[in-house]
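Notebook, p. 212. Picked up where the previous page left off. The plan for this session was modest: take the two constructs that came back from the sequencing core last week, fold each one, and keep the raw output in the notebook itself so nobody has to go hunting through shared drives later. Recording the first one now, exactly as returned: residue sequence, then the structure token string.
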Amino acid sequence: MAQLPSKLPVFSKKSLRARVVISYIFDYVIIIAFAIGFYILDRIEPYHQHFSLDNKSLQYPYAVHERVTIQEALLISILSPIIIVAVYTLLIDGLFSHHKPVTDHTGRRKLTGPYRLKDRLWELNCGILGLLLSQGLAFVITQVLKNACGKPRPDLIDRCQPAPGSQDLPVFGLSNSTICHGDPALIKDGFRSWPSGHSSSSFAGLFYISLYLGGKMHIMDSRGEVWKAIIVMIPTLGAALIAVSRIMDARHHPFDVITGSLLGVAMAWAAYRQYFPPLSEPWKKGRAYPIRSWATEPTRHVPLVPEEDEDDAVPLRNADEEQLHDRRPRMMNSGAVSLEPTTHAAAPAGGVHNRRRDRDAYSSSSSEDNHEGFEMTTSQYGRRSQEVDSSYQPYDTGYHPAVRPTSPPAAHSGQVRHLAGEA
């Protein structure tokens, strides 16, 4: 089972290569380029579709005061997620851990949990990068589609202010923007109905923060804690309310709002997956991906016994999946091959629980320590000190230079020769 260590090895005294640092600076450059591209696209005159003066769906009155202005939408969908990410990573992350490390001086447990400030800053960097990438993609793609399509808004005729007695052209029965005498800025914006920018932006930011919270709170760990799902869905509900307000203000047709919302959801998911693991892998605890290791070979190691102060080294385990993997041959210390499936040791008499099993690093409202699905446990490490699964490859987050392969240890080579002789 793949796992993430609690402390990112990237934050060591070893300096990073310049190309690795540049790769993350390039991420911010791309986001800035998206912002510049949006303002350039906003100045371009959109395509003007033909319309009919008799079209009832275009005769809604122009709402001078919007229920949610673009400035308010940006504050809700960008600033509030940044605040949530900052508060969680800098203050909350690790605060409710069941096993906190002990300080060297006083012997008391650290209130803030196992994560260092540098680890928290790394999570903050990835969280904000994903949010800005989601918003940048949503803004640019939405603006490109608005200019290319040029669909009239529901209040276009009120914006247009055609001359009294104006009629549709007799040939095709449609009119165009040449009959309009209203404010040119309002007319220009009146041909940008599809897709809804409020909808795409709100879902790009708020659905992203729903994914972020879902990963941190492990909502797919099969424990079924409903309060977590409610917290995760609150930002998405806020995005839906912002999108619905555009229909209430007659700024967009329902189709514009629906497609804009789907666009925002897609951008949020794509941006989140650039920096974080999927929600379907709750054992990774929503921790950000490691620093990029271009042209380097990650060092693989098998921690037989986790450190006492490393909460995050304890993985969530899928018991059903491991029962299938336990049937594979295992190499024992004596050199023999065991084909028997491994089983957990029986619980001691008197109902005494395993202390390492009770020391759950996973923050949960449930006090139960025995679940059929994903669970936190370290009892498997004691067994692996006697036997090593050759197929076990942990999820390493370290940044390591390329290392030349070395010859296998003598003990291991002796085991191989012993097995070869028996064969």
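Okay, moving on. Second construct, recorded in the same format:
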Amino acid sequence: MPGSGTTRLYRPDPTSAEAAKQCGAAVFAVHRRNPLRTEITVTGDIDAANGRALGHYVERHTGTNTQLLLDLRAVDFFGSQGFTALFYISVHCSRSDVDWILLGSPPVRRLLSICDPEGELPLAADFETAIARLNQQARRRLRAAFAG
């Protein structure tokens, strides 16, 4: 008789909370900074070989948190599939009620200036600004929870 157990869907495995994943020419790593916030850092190149994997990696690791800081400051190349991944992440976060913010390297910022000229994606200028915006969103959620 086959064993029974729990299958994890869209929830991070607690045993891999700090696990890094090599995917093509990039490395994805997740860090739990506090009970509400997840930080995902990406180093290397985001291209057609790993853009979709980035979206799925973020989706897997945001199931239990209400905030995401996506740090792409160490990305050396950012192709159009990277933008597709960011759009996917944006939709996922919206549907999952996750506040998120993005930090980008010059290649990321360059592509966003072309593909997102209206600034719809939540790009922050620096780490301190990103944390301040996430903290502000957390305070708004808290006020809304007490008011409603």
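Notes on construct two before I forget. The domain at 19-144 is CATH 3.30.750.24 (Transcription Regulator spoIIAA).
Flagging for discussion at group meeting.
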